[in-house]
Amino acid sequence: MQNNYDNRGAYADVTYAGFWVRLAAYLIDSVIVFFMLLVVRLILSGAISALSGTVLGGNILFDYTLKDIVLYLGQVLYFILCTRYTGTTPGKRALNLRVISVDESGELDLLNVVYRETVGRFLSGIFVCIGYLIIGVDREKRGFHDMLCDTRVVYGKRVKVYPAYPYPPMQPVGAPPMGTMPGSPENGAGVPPMGGRAEDPENGAGLSSMTHNGPYRMVQPNEKGDSDNL
Fold first, then answer.
1. Burial class of 27 by CB neighbour count within 10 A (0 to 12, 13 to 18, 19+)
2. Looking at the chain, which terminus has fewer C-beta neighbours within 10 angstroms, N or C?
């Protein structure tokens, strides 16, 4: 079943999922399976009591009772069906993980998935779970069940993150406060009058005392100027 994974161009840029993230996904799936089988446990408890004293009421396969077999099949079916038809499980999906196959078709075969989730996981769990621990040291993050069935657990969809450059807050533009403009009366300087007026009428000077710097000047109504000659 083994293929050269590095020669698979379709999966040349994948990122393998390490030991801790896969362990977290498995714990999430275990909690989900526990609550799903909780009702089955209650039903089987009553059924086993009714079958007490019969063949089905004792050990059926080695030291395993009917209840143990049914619960094991329910747990295995959870992983087989989710992995085969969705390529992931709810726990793996929560952590953006998925199971891929590296064979020529690139799809997960039902027989391989069944073999992976039964015999493969059994072999990974023996000898103090050494088959799972090697995920942390393997170059492609494989467990024994991945090696047997030629599968890999990788990160799923990649999310592109673009750097954000927030704009600086816009400051409202308004008129400057009184007393801050150059030449403001509050600063001790007068506002330059139109036509170069040196004195203001309110200060005791009449309009006739106004000076001019240009070709025009203001005159009193009774004052004769150059305008009479026009």
1. exposed
2. C
One DSSP character per residue, 85-139 reads HHSS-HHHHHTTEEEEE-SSS-S--HHHHHHIIIIIHHHHHHHHHHHHHGGGTST
Range of the domain at 58: 16-155
DSSP for 27-86 reads HHHHHHHHHHTHHHHHHHHHHHHHTTTSSTTSEEETTEEHHHHHHHHHHHHHHHHHHHHH
Report yes or no on 100 lying in a domain: yes
Token readout for 137 is 């040291």
The verdict on residue 51 lying in a domain is yes
The total domain count for the chain is 1
Residue 150 dihedral angles phi and psi, to the nearest 5°: 55, 50
Decide if 41 is inside a domain.
yes
Q: What is the mean pLDDT of residues 30-34?
A: 95
- pLDDT tens for 202-230 read 554 444 444 555 555 656 566 555 545 44
Residue 17, CA distances (Å) to 34, 99, 188 in order:
24, 10, 76
What is the number of alpha carbons within 13 Å of residue 135 lying toward its C-beta?
23
Query: Is 11 inside any structural domain?
Result: no
Record the pTM.
0.61
- Note the pLDDT of residue 110: 92
Per-residue confidence (pLDDT) for residue 62, from 0 to 100: 73
Q: How confident is the model at residue 168 (pLDDT cuts 50, 70, 90)?
A: low
| Start-to-end C-alpha separation, the chain | 116
Provide the token pair at 41.
Answer: 């446990």
